[in-house]
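> run fold Imidazole glycerol phosphate synthase subunit HisF
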Amino acid sequence: MLTKRIIPCLDIKDGRTVKGVNFVDLRDAGDPVELAQRYADEGADELVFLDISATEQKRKTLAKLVYHVAEAINIPFTVGGGISSVEDVDILLKNGADKVSINSSAVKRPELINELVAKFGSQCIVVAIDAKQIDGVWKVHLVGGKVATDIDFFEWAKEVEARGAGEILFTSMNHDGTKNGFANEALAKLSSLVNIPIIASGGAGNISHFADTFKKGKADAALAASVFHFSEIEIAHLKQELKKEGIPMRT
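> ok
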């Protein structure tokens, strides 16, 4: 069985790490370079860096900050926010990113996935999907969750895989920042529909939530922010506890 991954997420706004609840009420969580270095030292398997205001403000991800983060760590590093072209990805990879995450731009122009995969390979391309369950139906949302669409989450996920994406990062807007656990029912359904790795995001509050998303949600990786940023859960301890639960973890 493949080992499961623990991935801290740095949501970046104006060069600082921030964290909110249900995508709003953001508060400062520290310097992204310092946090990235700390997580690498603590045993994180990967790191995700999302410039959450890049798409909204129609500007490019802060390539210079990406460079400094990449310089400080020795683990795989995914960067997202405001990416809409082959050129954007090329700049980020040259500045130290290992993978890129696209979201709104892929929904608006799905061919972008094919273009990026053709140029850089599936292993480089993560498609992030922000979805919200409304009246029992999961719908895709754009621009940091601010714009609702009529697109069915599961149908979009299947198309993303068909277009060659190497991984899906699914954030449940209903669960984001609540610390009540991941959207395991939706994750398990997603896992039954696609064959590429799934990163679960939104809802981590304690160690059992991570265990549940691997066991019940069938997730390949679990992403969290505030529980790591504010030292509520220590990554090395989390991985030790998950191993005790029989969940294969990287040392």
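The domain at 5-244 is CATH 3.20.20.70 (TIM Barrel).
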